[in-house]
Fold this sequence. Notes:
It contains two helices and four strands; from the N terminus they run ββββαα. The protein has helices spanning 45-49, 51-64, and strands at 8-9, 12-20, 24-31, 37-43.
Amino acid sequence: MTRTSGTRVDHYELLDHLGDGGQAEIHRAKDLRDGSEVVLKFPLAKTLDHPVLAARWRREVAVTETLSHP
């Protein structure tokens, strides 16, 4: 899936494509609820199709959800 600036994903608006990694693509985005800027990381299909990589992704998401930093 191609995600471009201006695309809305849930309550976020994508601003810039920051880069691609081995398992994900990364975007700078604006939270439309409070106007804050965030970074969104989208897993690549090959990541979710691979059981070990998908498990790592789920662990990363769980850890990331515990973080709070201005």
